[in-house]
Amino acid sequence: MDVQAEVIEVLNGIIGEDISDQMDDNLFDSGLLDSMATVELLLDLENKFSIQAPVSEFNRDEWDTPNKIIAKVKSLIG
Amino acid sequence: MTNKKKLWQIFGPVLAAFALIGLLFLLPFPLNHLSPQAIRESSVSFASNIIKGEAVKKAAFNNKETNYVPFFGSSELTRFDSMHPSVLAAKYHRDYQPFMMGQAGTESMIHYMSMQEMRPALNHKKAVFIISPQWFTKKGVNVFFANFYSPLQLVDWLLNIQKITPTDQFMAKSLLNQSVVSQSNLYAGLVTKIENGQALSSADISRLRLEHRILSREDQLFSNYVGSNNWQNKVVKNMQSLPADYNSTDLDSVVTKQAEKASNSNDFLIKNSFYKQRIVPQEKRLKGSQVKFNYRESIEYSYMQAVLDQFAQEHTDVLFVIAPVNQRWSDYTGLSREMYYQSVDKIKYQLQSQGFNNIADLSHRGGEKYFMQDTIHIGWRGWLEADQYIDPFLSSDYQDVNYQINDRFLSTDWQKFDSSKQNVESFS
Amino acid sequence: MLNLQPYADPTYFIYLLLALVPLAIGLYYGKRFVWYEVIVSLLFIFLIFDSGRYIQQGIALIIYMLWETALVAWYTSYRKRANNSWVFYITTFLSILPILAVRIGDTGLFKTQLTLLGFLGISYLTFRTVGTIIETRDGSIKEFSLPLFLRFVLFMPTLSSGPIDRYRHFNQDATVAPSRDKYIEFLGKAVWYFFLGFLYKFILAYGFEHLYSYTQNMAMADASQGWSWWLIGVGYSYGFYLFFDFAGYSLFAVATGYVMGFDVPMNFKQPFRSKNLKDFWNRWHITLSFWFRDFVFMRLVFTMMKNKVFKSRITTSNVAYIVNMLIMGFWHGLTWYYIVYGLFHGVGLVVNDAWLRYKKKHKVPHNKLTEYFAIFLTLNVVMFSLLIFCGFLDKFWFHH
Q1: Cβ contact B14–C184 (<8 Å)
Q2: Domain residue limits at B422
Q3: Which one, out of A53, B18, B374, B393, has a CA that is 20 to 30 A from the CA of B1?
Q4: What is the pTM of this model?
Q5: Whole-number Å distance between alpha carbons of B305 and B310
């Protein structure tokens, strides 16, 4: 499975609905993500990709849409 | 859009705002207009902006229709009933109308500052000054100073100083003890100069003139609104119960009946509403609470001296009224009658030895029935008795006065002079 | 001696803006005169603390800065070598030690000694320092630069009461000049914010402050059995007073920051239009609530989830809400009403979350009317919490 699909799966699991049709929507503005869900996301990503994403690296502007999150994860992996 | 144009769009409105402010302060027409009704309302509104500012005072005392006379005092001025001076003057169409200057917390130092803004109204004119011995606590009661102080008073005071007198130096020192003055960068320096007997430079004076311009415009702008209905609610309402013609014997029986009904809830003959709200919750605690009160030694004697000096400078013809306390109440709280009378002796000596001989001394009459409206405030028959002095005084013509000011009354020697141990007349 | 308290009166703005003109001209032409900025900042900080009772505070500020700078400098160099959790905890504790001492002093314990450590703005300086230490621990900050650290913590426009910036965000602006377009945009906003601030702080806050003192007197006079209808007025007038005073102040700080070419974060975003409590904390004292969100709430949740302290996700977030808001309450001061205020908002957020979950599951009608009702309800909950916060109830019930 590629990174994109796995990240979407993680996001779907946390948010509880399919977000694959809103890849460039701001998840914080729409209320789908909040602080709580963010931490879950970071923990899941940490487990899945063995990447270290400390909370203070988490800048909301850089993590606010599914596409941005995917790009972020890719950069942290590689 | 070019950058230059953008900058204009940003700063243009700022420049316009400054230009408008400049116009507001510099244009030569006044910014306030008080109708005769508004002035009448102000005369019984007790608003602190009257004491703080110039605008209302000017409007009232320059007014040609009604002859307003300043009544300086404190909380007793706000005790309305059918015999209140404003009510009597209005009902019986006297050729004067009191203008109330004061409320709870105002004493000599505040009045002195306020007088700086109304010197023409005092100059060769009449005034009434009601003295409460309660002002004469050791350090004075000027904790309320900041509530009634305004920079405009201070600027007027500084501009009024021609040659620095001991009174000016005393006041400078007292003002610097007030944080509202000492914390102001500009004024603290100028007042310190006065304290040190140093004349202000012409640069200081021009700076003060500019300040005066700004502050008095501000004062004008904010004195258009009189937030009070006292004339209708207190004065007119109380007038209705009075007989058409003035006769002090008739009035005495009218007011005795009113007072009897209004104070029937307690043995102190305190007005029922006051008794219920202010006394009942703490009646037990107040018993014997004033045994140690002492009005004989106080810095207030010197603040009062500053006021006297001001009256002397302006040749004001003043009637002083010395207020009593409710004896039924003071016996309960343990306030010493002897101490009270000794402080009154000291006050009267200070007045009379300098030629202030127009005194209505009511201080010994606090035991008379219905003379007091509550604990320390005259009302009812007390107001009627005061009227026996006020009406003849204000209905007669102004007489030039000749006061001999003695600066020794500014000294700590006098403040600490104990009138229980020494005869006041031994002080010189 | 000339003494200038920040944004206190019209003359302050005249002095401040005149002093900033050379800096602004430099920035407009793409040059940042760092040395000039430092001198002007130091001068204005000096003028806060140069006379009377403020001198003591100035000395406390200097001691505080020596202490915190040494701590951060040492920790950064330690962090390059090792990363022991306990060293991090102890360093964090030592950095909040001064404000802790002052807060304890405020309660009356060793009052005279401990409160000597306090000065105007200590809590805001503490947020900046602690934030820096935590980000260093995370490895987000790698180098310690003395001049940058001092400029960040002592940033003059925000010294006394925020907004609270972050070290890395601040440093993006600190050494370069913004582009001309960006700077013109800054100036435009600055002018607008200054004037909006004048309206807020000098007109509206002034009016509400008078109303607040009036309602307090009325409530005091009318107290019967621990209740007076005037308390409602006290709560509302205080709430509006606090908002207009603090938001006005924040606007001045942000505007001054803009003139100096810094993108200072905003502190308020129309908080009285919040639809629920969570929304409120995204709009009210934003830099403080986000600081708590990032450095307390999220970290706590992260730790609790990683160590599986609670099985349920909901319990985890509820505990974190209450702890987070309680700490915020304690930060304001160690009195019952600040702590109750914190607890109230903690519980409020828990209830709010439960409602949002319920709403998601069930079909709850949602339209303009329910939205207005939500805003109205939130406003009243907030005003009630501010009635607790203002401390009048303490006077009303216990020191009558």
Answers
A1: no
A2: 31-426
A3: B18
A4: 0.81
A5: 9
